[in-house]
């Protein structure tokens, strides 16, 4: 049986400036380190603010699991569908991330590899 944990919550900002301001607000509130990347700004490891709207009406929820492919198979057996166009692989070919096909209450949900 797959193991699951909350990896992070993604918030859709309208642009890079709003993303930075939002991440900095979480940083000021809770002492999280703010780290800008190419497409998002993280506040700590639990809050990702997208520099432009991405998947999900409101954003996304990342669920960590040690084996994404195994977790995907398990969830598909329960009747959940995935969007294969969102699959991301590591250099060795290991599936590292994939989104569910449907949103949950306005949030996209994706599995992400977590050791």
What does this protein look like?
This is VOC family protein. InterPro entries: Glyas_Bleomycin-R_OHBP_Dase. The chain has 115 residues and is α+β, with helices and mostly antiparallel strands. The protein is 22% helix and 41% strand. The protein has helices spanning 16-30, 68-77; strands at residues 5-12, 34-36, 40-43, 47-50, 59-65, 82-89, 95-100, 107-113. The chain has an 8-stranded mixed beta sheet, with helices on one face. The longest helix is centred in the N-terminal third of the chain and has 15 residues, at 16-30. The chain starts with a strand and ends with a strand.
Shape: globular
Number of β-strand runs: 8
Overall structural class, as computed from helix and strand content, comes to: alpha+beta
The main β sheet shows up as: 8 strands, mixed
From the N-terminal CA to the C-terminal CA, the straight-line distance is 16 Å
The count of domains is 1
CATH superfamily: 2,3-Dihydroxybiphenyl 1,2-Dioxygenase, domain 1
Alpha carbon gyration radius = 15 Å
Under the CATH scheme, which architecture would be assigned?
Answer: Roll
Total of DSSP H or I helical runs spanning 4+ residues: 2
Helicity range of the residues? 10-25%
What value does the average pLDDT take?
A: 96
Summarize the helix and strand pattern as letters. Answer: EHEEEEHEEE
**What name does the CATH topology carry?**
2,3-Dihydroxybiphenyl 1,2-Dioxygenase, domain 1
Low-confidence stretches: none
Task: State the CATH class.
Answer: Alpha Beta
Q: Reading side by side through the largest sheet, how are the strands ordered?
A: 2-3-4-1-5-8-7-6
| Percentage of residues in strands | 35-45%
């Amino acid at each position: 049986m797959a193991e699951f944990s909350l990896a992070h919550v993604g918030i859709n900002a309208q642009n890079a400036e709003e993303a930075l301001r939002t991440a900095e607000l979480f940083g000021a509130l809770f002492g999280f380190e703010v780290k800008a990347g190419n497409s998002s700004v993280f506040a700590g490891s639990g809050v990702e603010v997208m520099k432009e709207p991405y998947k999900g009406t409101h954003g996304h929820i990342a669920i960590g699991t040690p084996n994404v492919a195994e977790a995907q198979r398990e969830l598909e057996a329960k009747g959940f569908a995935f969007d294969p166009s969102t699959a991301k692989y590591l250099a060795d070919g290991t599936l590292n991330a994939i989104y569910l096909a449907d949103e949950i209450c306005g949030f996209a949900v994706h599995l992400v590899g977590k050791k």
